Amino acid sequence: MRLRLLLPVAFLSMIFSAALMANDNGPTVNPGTQIDQQSGLIKADGFSLVLAHCSACHSPSLITQNAMSRERWLQIIRWMQNTQKLWPLGDAEPVILDYLSTWYGPKTSARRPPLAPYLMPRD
Ligand code: HEC
């Protein structure tokens, strides 16, 4: 009798925790932050500029699957401008870089911690 109640509960909690884990690999999003359904981009300051400038040639998923510093984002933008006909971004550039480095910045949790001093090479 007990077991009949317990099994569905255990099953549901397994599904629930699997769903939570599956959700764990995106950028860390503050509670209340919305994702634009169509582009998959986080809706925050600069979102509409990024959508306008960065989804004309390729899927915005090239953005959402990346995690880079502001400097790296700028390098990618320069590379697209030099080789892929991306236009000058003008006043939008700093806003776009703020957005990219804030929401698609390097993932600190994905990095290994620094080596202990005794593991470092000797000079
Ligand atoms: C004029 C066309 C064009 C526009 C507009 C454009 N890109 Fe790209 N981008 C490209 C091309 C072409 C590639 C290479 C695509 C590929 O490898 O499939 C690319 C690749 C990328 C990559 C992957 C680079 C890599 O090394 O893996 C990222 C990230 C990216 N773009 C971000 C952006 C962002 C951010 C913007 C807005 C500022 C933007 N793109 C606007 C043409 C464009």
Describe the protein.
The protein has 123 residues and is mostly helical. It has a domain at 35-107: Cytochrome Bc1 Complex, Chain D, domain 2 (Orthogonal Bundle), CATH 1.10.760. 48% of the residues lie in helices and 3% in strands. The chain has 5 helices and 2 strands, in the order αββαααα. The protein has helices spanning 2-22, 47-54, 61-64, 70-83, 92-103, and strands at 34-35, 42-43. A two-stranded antiparallel sheet has the order 1-2. Strand 1 (34-35) and strand 2 (42-43) form a beta hairpin. It is flat and about 65 Å long. The protein starts with a helix and ends in a 20-residue tail after the last helix. Bound molecules: heme C.
Radius of gyration: 21 Å
Q: Based on DSSP secondary structure assignment, what is the total number of beta strands?
A: 2
Largest sheet: 2 strands, antiparallel
Form type? flat
Write out the strand line-up for the largest beta sheet, numbering strands in chain order.
Answer: 1-2
Overall helicity: 40-55%
Low-confidence parts lasting 5 or more residues at pLDDT below 50?
A: none
- N-end to C-end Cα span: 70 Å
Which hetero compounds are present in the coordinates? heme C
Protein name: Cytochrome C
Keywords: Signal
GO molecular function: electron transfer activity; heme binding
Signal peptide: 1-22
